[in-house]
Please model this.
Amino acid sequence: MTFLIALLGLVLPNTPETAAPKKVLFVVTSFSEVKGVGKTGLWLEEFTTPYYELTARGIAVTIASPRGGKTPVDPKSTAENMQTASVKKYLTDPAAQQKLNSALPLSTVNAGDYDAVFYPGGHGPMWDLVDDKHSIALISRFYEQGKPVSLVCHAPAVLKNVKTKDGAWFVHGKTVSGFTNTEEVAGGALDMTPFSLEDMLKEHGAKYERGAD
Model:
């Protein structure tokens, strides 16, 4: 996961062991169902892998969502064939489960309290975080403060309405990636998406890059 390597490189402590631990804010979705289509939410492995990688290195993780409280998990992401090592660990880790299900309301968090922000994916963020004014403002503040803003898979969708101080689209001119149109078709998940992530990024002037599906 390139995003995770980059995030680790930026937030890992390079100060004495007595220094305060780095703090990373995870922003997750509160959206659980596309009516008439099916259940959705957070894609679990995109939370569990970075969560365990960061916490194992002494980095403090705080979780926030638009509504706060219990985080909906896409049931497909817990299917047996989707259970990576980190997912299996989470499914037997009551403390981590409690943390994910006790998210802070996004309106209560302050960018100044954290060293980086990370958005895991799943289709959920495309429905509730794209227009969330607190998320939009939070991303802008992290960026303006020179702090890492990291997103994976479908999560770059939350940049759709984020602009820079001069009014340009946040992603304009930036090299980005995200879930592709062909992956969406191959996964039979077009009905789960309110818009095409790939098309949006390109239309906003991003330098969109992709690998093989």
Remarks:
- Residues 114 and 146 are 12 Å apart (CA to CA).
- Strands lie at 23-27, 33-34, 38-39, 60-65, 104-105, 116-119, 149-151, 175-176, 207-208.
- Residues 22-158 form a domain with the Rossmann fold fold (CATH 3.40.50.880).
- The mean pLDDT is 93.
